[in-house]
Amino acid sequence: MKRVEILAVGSELLTPFFLDTNSLFLAGRLNSLGLEVSFKTVVGDDEDDLVLRLEEASRLADLILVIGGLGPTADDRTREAASRAFGRKLISVPEILRRIEDRFKRRGLPMPASNRKQGDVLEGAEVLTNEFGTAPGQWLEWNGKSIIFFPGPPHELEPMFDVHVLPRLEPFRRGYLFHKTLKISGLTESAVEDLMAGLYPVDPALEVTTLAKPGQIEIHLRSLSSAGRQEAESLLRPLETALLARLGENVFSVGGESLEEVVGSLLRSRKATLACAESCTGGLISHRLTNVPGISESFIGGMTAYSNRAKEEWLAVPCEVLVESGAVSARAAESMAAGIRLAAGADFGLAVTGIAGPSGGTPDKPVGLVYTALAWENGVEAVKNQFLGNRDQVKFQSSQKALDMLRRRLLKIRP
Length: 415
Hints:
By secondary structure, the chain is of the alpha/beta class. The chain has three domains: 4-172, MoaB/Mog-like domain (Molybdenum Cofactor Biosythetic Enzyme, Chain A), CATH 3.40.980; 176-253, Alpha-Beta Plaits, CATH 3.30.70; 259-411, Alpha-Beta Complex (Maf protein). Helix content is 37%, strand content 24%. It contains 13 helices and 17 strands. The protein has helices at residues 21-31, 47-60, 78-86, 94-106, 154-165, 189-195, 229-247, 259-269, 284-289, 308-315, 319-324, 330-344, 391-411, and strands at 4-9, 39-43, 63-67, 90-92, 120-122, 126-128, 137-142, 145-150, 176-184, 206-213, 216-225, 251-253, 274-278, 299-304, 348-354, 369-376, 379-386. A six-stranded mixed β-sheet has the order 2-1-3-8-7-6, with helices on both faces. The protein has a five-stranded mixed β-sheet with strand order 14-13-15-16-17, with helices on both faces. A hairpin with a 2-residue loop joins strand 10 and strand 11. Helix 1 runs parallel beside helix 5 (154-165) and helix 8 (259-269) runs parallel beside helix 13 (391-411).
């Protein structure tokens, strides 16, 4: 099996301020060929480090995709490092320089001297034209390995890969890869694992990966077939069916939809309306819902009632509830849900109240304690939750739990 490595170059990618989206794009395109990435490495701009990583990649992988470090600045050292790693001279190509000069002329600018280095190509490498920037790509065949160099800006890399590289990678094709994601709410990762017992495939053409995220678990299913996409999909179907039977309504998505998108679809299909009253989530539920196109058919509005006064005056939460049970209680959550439903004239009222932290907790009511409540025409219910994490994580998990309460209630209504 041919191994693939993606090597992303740039010291900025080793900081918390920049995300390597190019590797995600390339991995997706490679997957379309049935190719899986064996290694993904990020290396800074130091030339010696680059040489070490290029040498290591050429020992381990058969197809190496190198991103970045082809610009005109002093810290763009990929060409020089590759020259050292593979023993190939850098040759200035006049045609490339003319193309760069023409690009600057079209903008009414002289070409800076620093751009001349972008005309340097590894001896024996093929030039990959860059229609959207000054840095050409390069394709080098070396000791039976294919090493492809791309510019770092995504708007330059993506068309270069699709036009000049993807069609030529067909000889590397392993087959057709089909991927599906099951998204699960209301269960822990260990509970999902227990339910999946005995379902992990022994067929090497099938792969199952479980990923825990705040407020949800994802099961990623992948199948590989040399016969085509339909065959890959049919290989996966029995496993998907078995998982859905085990996990039941805890699965809220099989097509990649977010929980708010699923709730929006259920509200529309049931012709139901919703209003939200939020305290510790600060409007997060409303924000997530209003990211869903077409939600105006179902979502009437939301209210952030943070203080006790707001809860009393805006949502008609009885004073005695706040005095006797406190703002973070099942009684308060139920009153908030019922209050917003009546105030908005909605079919459903959704409410959240809790302690997001990091301060404000007590032994009886610790940080992460959150009550979610749902009110409808004939009833109201509240659920006590204890979430872990920082303030943002507690807020997100609270919003996820509230939306999931509504989803499960809507599933009981025939469309």
